[in-house]
Amino acid sequence: MPFSVLCNNIEDTEKLSEKFAKAVCDNGAFVCLFGDVGAGKTAFTKLVCKYLKVKEKVTSPSFVIINEYKSGIIPVYHFDLYRLEKEGISTIINELDEYSEGRILTFVEWAEFSQNNLPFDRIEIQINYIDETKREFIFTSFGDKSNNTLKRLGL
Ligand SMILES: Nc1ncnc2c1ncn2[C@@H]1O[C@H](COP(=O)(O)OP(=O)(O)OP(=O)(O)O)[C@@H](O)[C@H]1O
Ligand SMILES: [Mg+2]
Hints:
Layout: E1 3-7, H1 10-24, E2 29-34, H2 41-51, E3 66-69, E4 76-80, H3 86-96, E5 105-109, E6 122-129, E7 135-142, H4 144-153
Parallel strand pairs: 2-5, 2-6, 4-5
Antiparallel strand pairs: 1-7, 3-4, 6-7
Helix pairs in contact: 1-2, 1-4
The chain binds adenosine-5'-triphosphate (ATP) and magnesium ion.
């Protein structure tokens, strides 16, 4: 069942990110991030990376397709499908399944551009802009691994 978390400010989002990092660090996860421009998809990714002790600078992967961060507790892969051409997308979507296996954490911003080629076992996070500092996070999971991970969030 989907559930939602209201973050009144960036500090609340920090706390949520810390819990999320703890919940995913044992088994990894494939995470799809939905929400308008400026909703906070990259901000959430950055904060989760911070709590996974990623040392590299986490930036929006808009123009490089994918960023990889190997210095943290688990490897993190960060996609942004928004600015990819159709051709680029078809190359990537065939590979997305590989990023859902093993103890790795994958974030996909603008996952709606994946043309329904998402791995079955995944966590979806819809981030809604409420006002300048307030955001609503709606979590949904598909598959045993992701269902268990969201249970560990304890929300
Ligand atoms: N409670 C909050 N949670 C998350 N971000 C917040 C919050 N309050 C303010 N912000 C700010 O909102 C902005 C979100 O921008 P961000 O780049 O993460 O959006 P995005 O969803 O990745 O957009 P894009 O589609 O362009 O990639 C950041 O500047 C962040 O600091
Ligand atoms: Mg972004």
